[in-house]
Prior knowledge:
It is a single chain. It contains 17 helices and eleven strands. The chain is of the alpha+beta class and 634 residues long. Among the domains are: 1-62, no CATH class; 334-444, no CATH class. It has a five-stranded mixed β-sheet with strand order 5-4-3-6-7, with helices on both faces. Strand 3 and strand 4 form a beta hairpin. Helix 4 packs across helix 15 and helix 8 packs antiparallel against helix 11 (425-434). The radius of gyration is 45 Å and the shape is extended. The termini are far apart.
Amino acid sequence: MPDRCAVYGCSNQASLENNVSVHRIPFLNDDRVEAKKRRKKWVDFVMTTREKEDLTLKKYCARLLRDEIGILAYPTLHLKHKTKKEPLSRDKRMQKRNVITSLASHSEQPHTKKSKGEQHPTVCFDENEHLDEFCDENFLVEGPSTQLKDVEVQCCLVDKSTRHYKNMWATAKYKLQRCRNELKKCKVKLGYIGRLQYATYKYCERGHQREKLFPAILLHWKKYQSCMIEQLKSSGKQLVIAGDGRHDSMGHSAKYCAYSVFCCTVPNIIDFSIVQKNEVGNSPAMEYEGFKRSMDNLLKRNIPISTFVSDRHTSIAKHMREKHKNITHYFDLWHLIKKVSKVLKKIEKESGCEAISQWIKPCTNHLFWSVTTTFSGHGLVMLAKFKSFFSHIINRHSELPDRLFTKFAHDSNIQDRKWLDEDSITYIKMHAALTKRSLVPGIKKASPLEQTSCLEGFHSVLNQFSPKMLSYSYPGMFARHALAVIHFNINLKRYVKEINGVKQVKLVYPKFKNGEAVVRNVTVKPNFNYVEEIYQTTLCAIRYNTLNKAEKGLKLMTPLPMSSMLNKQSKDEAIQKHSARKAMTTIDVPPTNPVQEAPVSQDQTTGRAKPHCSICKQPMKGHKNVANCPKNQK
């Protein structure tokens, strides 16, 4: 083994020709105190890089010593490790730009087949260069072409003469994940070419929406609706339909109201109408106008309608009672249950009525049972069944007061509960709230069979196509509603997922259930085949020049803007009123007669009234002696 310097970064060998000498650590076996101090300086010099080795056996070259003479000399010169300088980011970008420019210029030239004697141009690659923005090391491209199939991305190659690899193309090493993400983006973007995606309207320009997309959806919706109505007519059945409105924003400031009609016999949404606020004057009247348009449209098409189900909208109820007497009108049971629950929860918050909380859910369940078990839909029978609940909560289960329903249908084994007292405040308020004149007619007309629950589910789907927090034009609102209807009808009856023959279910916890779980089926993924049908409709409309007619028809459907319902004040009049208001001066207006201060009486008491009983209205002082008060009769 030749004598070699052991210091990190120095690999000199002992050589007389190069004038290099190596030395051992002085005072190696000397135990004197002064010798140990001098030897320690040599050891500490290289301790940072050679701390795990036996430094006493190593040798060090003389180039590490300064020009000092004597036994006190020790190494003090550190040799820096030679490292490769990293190129700047700007240099990398400029190099890549030059490569892309050269590749683009080469790609414009036609490729000619070379003879056997000719050689391909030499293209060399430095492996240390990190040109990894465009190429994947899984792609090995040979020959003059670097074009990838389907995704037109070219590899960046660098012309250098530092290596001797000839007659081949090599791709650069790069970060795999980054390049794959770029290719995925290209695939997604290219996927929109040649077909219409279900969310394409989000990326289209306004002009393209107005001239192509919205008219195409209108044509497809008319064709789709005509096919549905012809199938309903050919079935020969009397149809049960349900209707409900949906405003585009909360409160009484909505701009649009979309009224949808659902066929309960053949589960499909068969019609909808969109009403703008300035067409009727105010927001509450929009739902009634949408109902009239949809009902008139269906009756003009001679659709056999036997029953109509809606919420308790007073204008709709009056319209059905006066103009459509041959159609049976029912109220949706879910809306009634919601109203009863809301009334009872309000009473529960009052003082002394806390006991009603345990009877809210039994009351709504009893209302549901009273309506759904009356197949004839007779209102008096449903009301008699519901009123039997007032006897049940006071533990009276026979000899009911109503002759139409004198006994309960449940078993005699009744679980013990905290029954209410007939003379208690809780029972009196509960009975008065559930027998109001505004609620009893609704219970009599509750729907025993079909409900509007599917429409509530459709409104949830509609929020994905036209969210309430965004504003749309009338054609945009119509197109989004039509797409939502088609999507809902196709995916309403989806199959349930099965694993090894077992149907899959899931648990959800709705807010109104207060922590109670609801079991729902796990269905397959939704179907979007209707997108291709809309695309084919668009091509046919362009071929037969019907797209322009549909665009004109959509313009005729669009109502005037909201500002048209206001009588705008002219500019001159506004300036004149403003100037007159600024020119007015405020003056003091004294009273007609002088103010006389009334003398304060010493016997004057405070205006607070004495406490009285809330039931008998007698003073609370000595109230325990009042015999006819219900509170004292407990």
